[in-house]
Amino acid sequence: MNQQKINILGSEWTIVRTNRGEEKRLENKAVFCDNSTKEIVVTKYEKDPEDL
Fold first, then answer.
1. What's the rounded Cα separation, in Å, for the pair 8 and 25?
2. Which residue among 4, 19, 32, 46 is buried most deeply as judged by most CB within 10 Å?
């Protein structure tokens, strides 16, 4: 898991880069935004064998 703090319009947010297996909120998503904790959770890119 990799974390980075950013400032969005005067509010401090944390960007979290993780694998889907480590974060249950990303079960069927690539990105999740949690307004209560000011986190933006992003999956690390994993190539899908079905992609062209």
1. 22
2. 32
